[in-house]
Amino acid sequence: MAPAMDAKTSRISDDDRLLNMWLHNRSGNTARAYRADVGSFRQWADKPLADVVLDDLQGWFDCLKGSDATRRRKLASIKSALAFGVRVGFLDVDVGAALRLKRGRDRLSERILTEEDVRRIIDMEECPRKRVALRVLYFMGLRISEMCALTWRDMTRRQQGGVASVFGKGNKTRHVLVPAKLWKELVAVRADNWRPETPIVPGHDGSPLHLRAAHRLVKRAAKRAGLPDASAHWFRHAHASHALDNGAPAHVVQQTLGHSDLKTTTRYAHVREGDGGANYLKD
Q1: What single-letter DSSP state applies at residue 275?
Q2: Where is the Tyr recombinase domain (predicted)?
Q3: Does 17 qualify as catalytic in the annotation?
Q4: Parts of the chain belonging to CATH 1.10.443.10
Q5: 258-278 per-position pLDDT tens digit
Q6: Fewest Cβ atoms nearer than 10 Å: which of 170, 197, 247, 249?
Q7: Is 1.10.150.130 the CATH classification of the domain at 13-98?
C-alpha cells in the first residue's frame, strides 16, 4: 500500500512542484524574481500551467506595464519555466516556444554614466558609509545584491588593497580586486568590534544593508546629482564601459563582472575615434 500523503504534501499543486524543481539550487535573489514573474502570470491566466495556450501568453505580455526590457525579461522567465516543464514531463506542450518577439533596440548606451557623472554622484554624497557603497558598486562592478551580501569573511588583504570572494549569479564564486584606496575607506567605516560576519557595507545601525535600502541609497544619490533615472546597475554598466575604454582587456572585465559569455562584456566596448582594425595589421 502506498504511503498516505501528509497534509502539507496534499495541498501543493503540480504547478508549485514544477516551480520548486525549476528553481532548485538557484540563488535566492534569482529564485525570488523568477517566482514573482511566474506568480504574476499564473494570477493573470487563472488556470494551471498545463492548460495554458499561446493566446494566454500573448495576452499577458500585451498587458504588461514597464519598459520593453522589463517586459521581455518577465516573458523569458515564463518561457523558461514552461520549457523546463516539458523537459521533465510535467507539461505536454511548450507553448512558449511559439511566441517569438522582434529583437528590441539595444538601449544599453542610454544606461551608461560618464566618468564625470559617476564622480558627481559620489562626490555629492556626504555620508561616508553611503559614499563607500557607491564606490564599491563602481570600482568593484558588483551587483547590488552581491554588495549587500559581502562580509569581512569574504575579504583578503593584499599588499596593495585586497581581494573579495564574491558569491554571485548562477551560484558562482569569483575573485574581485579591491583597490587600495577603497580598502582603506571600507576599513574606516568598519565597526571597532567587527567580526568576520560583519558586512563590508553596513546599514545605518551596523546590521547588513537591506537590498531595498541599498536601492534607495543609490536612487537618492543619483537624483541629488541630477540623474534621477540612474540605478545601482548603472554603476556596473559604467565599470565595464570605463574599464574597457581605458584599455582593460575584455577577459579581465569579464572575470570581474562574472559574465559567462565574453559577448556580454564586449557590448560595453566603444570604438575610439581614429581607431580601426587596420591599425593592428602589419603592412
Answers
A1: -
A2: 108-281
A3: no
A4: 109-266
A5: 988 888 888 777 645 556 665
A6: 247
A7: yes
Q: Where in the chain is the domain with CATH 1.10.150.130?
A: 13-98
Greatest C-alpha distance within the chain? 82
Catalytic: 242?
Answer: no
Q: What is the pTM of this model?
A: 0.70
C-alpha cell at 1: 500500500
Four-way CATH pick for 109-266: 3.30.460.80, 1.20.1270.10, 1.10.443.10, 3.40.850.10: 1.10.443.10
174 labelled catalytic: no
Question: pLDDT tens, 1-36?
Answer: 444 444 444 445 789 999 999 999 887 778 888 999
What letter represents residue 229's amino acid?
A: D
Residue 169 designated active-site: yes
Burial (Cβ within 10 Å: 0-12, 13-18, ≥19) of residue 232: buried
Residue 163 C-alpha from the chain's centroid:
20
Active site residue 143: yes
Q: pLDDT tens digits for 128-154?
A: 999 999 999 999 999 999 999 999 999
Distance, in Å, from the CA atom of 136 to the CA atom of 130, rounded to the nearest integer, reads: 10
Q: Which of 79, 120, 143, 242 is catalytic?
A: 143
